[in-house]
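Input record, target 12 of the design panel.
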């Protein structure tokens, strides 16, 4: 494991990682490249705890200095984890031209457009077939935009839906098809392993068993909100679970990043 994807800093306000902690661990574990994907700053910052534009600018400056200091030992890339919005498409598309953002990964946390009244967290509110269809529509828009390099925690909706029926199987199949058609690897979320394992907390075995029957690429993503999730031992644990779920032929250690600059 030389490359680590999906990392958050404490500036997102729900992570305990400090940049210093992350760099020290990366040097100790002999990682070669880290791919930061902080939550993208939003004009309407009221829905999910996120960093401000000013905090992102400061973090990017710090990372630039670290890259200069450890030029031959460690490279840190910087992008955002973002949703996608049909009504505010230009807001998310603008990151392609944003000097602070080098790439995006798709982290779909909401059932509805963030600019609609009272958007609902997918991990809490995806209860009906209608909800799953809405989640799928958002995923289609994101995939078609071709600005994302990874589909993060694609099974997050099962945490709320909590049923493995025809609707769940349908959405799983559609996500797999999107992944293959748009060459958008699926993220097997190591952070999710911290949760109570009751069958429907991601990563969900039933979901990944279906992925294992396909040719979709799967990446172990740290989604590191604390330093333990970033450790090589934890990522190896996640990889072992993924292999137990049948994903040994799907797993890749590195993905193609769609860089903007």
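The sequence produced for target 12 reads:
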């Amino acid at each position: 494991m030389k490359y680590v994807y999906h990392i958050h800093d404490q500036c997102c306000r729900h992570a305990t990682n400090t940049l210093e902690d992350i760099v020290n661990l990366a040097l100790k574990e002999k990682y070669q490249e880290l791919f930061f994907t902080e939550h993208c700053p939003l004009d309407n910052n009221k829905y999910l705890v996120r960093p401000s534009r000013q905090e992102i600018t400061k973090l990017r400056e710090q990372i630039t200095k670290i890259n200069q200091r450890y030029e031959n030992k460690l490279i840190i890339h910087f992008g955002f984890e973002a949703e996608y919005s049909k009504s505010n498409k230009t807001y998310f598309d603008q990151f392609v031209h944003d000097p602070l953002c080098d790439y995006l990964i798709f982290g779909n946390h909401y059932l509805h457009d963030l600019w609609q009244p009272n958007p609902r967290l997918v991990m809490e509110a995806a209860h009906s077939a209608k909800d799953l269809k809405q989640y799928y529509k958002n995923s289609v828009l994101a995939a078609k935009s071709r600005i994302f390099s990874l589909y993060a925690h694609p099974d997050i909706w099962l945490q709320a839906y909590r049923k493995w029926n025809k609707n769940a199987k349908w959405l799983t199949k559609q996500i797999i098809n999107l992944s293959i058609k748009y060459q958008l690897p699926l993220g097997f979320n190591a952070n999710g392993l911290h949760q109570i394992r009751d069958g429907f907390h991601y990563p969900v075995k039933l979901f990944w068993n279906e992925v294992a029957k396909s040719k979709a690429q799967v990446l172990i993503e740290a989604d590191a909100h604390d330093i333990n999730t970033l450790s090589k031992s934890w990522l190896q644990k996640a990889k072992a679970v993924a292999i137990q779920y049948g994903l040994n032929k799907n797993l890749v250690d590195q993905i193609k990043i769609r860089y903007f600059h």
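The first strand starts at residue 3 and ends at 7.
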